[in-house]
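Example 315.
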Amino acid sequence: MSEVLVLVDHVDGAVRKPTYEMLALAKKLGEPSAVFIGGSDKADDAVASLKKYGAEKVYVVDDAEIKGYLVAPKAETLQQLVEQASPAAVLVTSSAEGKEIAGRLAIKTESGIITDAVDVEEGPVTTQSVFAGNFTVKSKVTKGTPIIAVKPNAATPEEGDGAGTREDFSPTISDSAKKAKIVASQPRKASGRPELTEAAIVVSGGRGTGGDFDPIEGFADSLGAAVGASRAAVDSGWMPHAFQVGQTGKVVSPQLYVANGISGAIQHRAGMQTSKTIVAVNKDEEAPIFELVDFGVVGDLFDVLPKATEEITKR
Ligand code: FAD
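Predicted structure in complex with flavin-adenine dinucleotide:
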């Protein structure tokens, strides 16, 4: 059975959920092999967790030489692994970074690329979300090694031990790949909430909040959810841009999306309409958001959310 390479998405060695989701998808195509590029002191824990979610093999690439560089060294590393392992496919997270790595890798390996994948099956045939989530299509790469960028929340992680065999890999990184480097970075203030793009539940607020996000945040915390915002809320300076959901913000696809005081403009929908269940609270029963919801509450968010928060907190 061919290997399927999965580029591990992690923060300082802590493996992020989209990686486990990709391992579950990789199992459908062959033997999942995770590629961990990071500090070797962090590798043991990462290997253990990747094994737990089905990795048969884990390539560990010590990043001492390339730490802080941007995506090019990762693309070169994957290129060399593709040449060595001839995998059935390469899966990366469909994030800004993942898509850039995928694009560079596709050029280097003269392969086809599919982005925003939400499922894979034998072939590999990929179900792909297109036109801002308005359609899904089945796509197949016909040249080279299929490079597939997978949307977070596309699959459910599956626990089940793989062999987890560790193989250290030392790529040769070219000087040109080391031309761009991160020179400074500022950690985001920890909110204790899940990351927006990988949260199972997202509670968002729009112009209807009038700038008061307390009910949104209170409700989000009662559900262990991430907080999102419409562009109107971000442009008004009520929330930072990192919270914006939509065409020019983040694309989320949680199990549950709750839109509060958000009208449902096409550009907002582009970032959330593939959510599994959508709930809206809006005081205008004609608001376009009600066209796409599973459950709608016509009401004032300042009445509805505190009551809902109280009920949930009681349970
Ligand atoms: P509004 O459209 O003003 O809606 C506010 C809603 O709140 C109304 O439906 C109102 O009935 C309701 N409301 C008011 N008070 C209450 C209350 N007390 N309780 C309950 N409901 C209440 N938008 C995005 O969100 N994300 C994007 O990424 C994005 N990208 C864009 C890119 C381009 C190129 C352009 C042109 C626009 C983009 N927009 C984006 C903007 C988008 O078109 C809308 O203007 C924006 O989404 C509106 O935000 P909103 O729904 O919060 O505000």
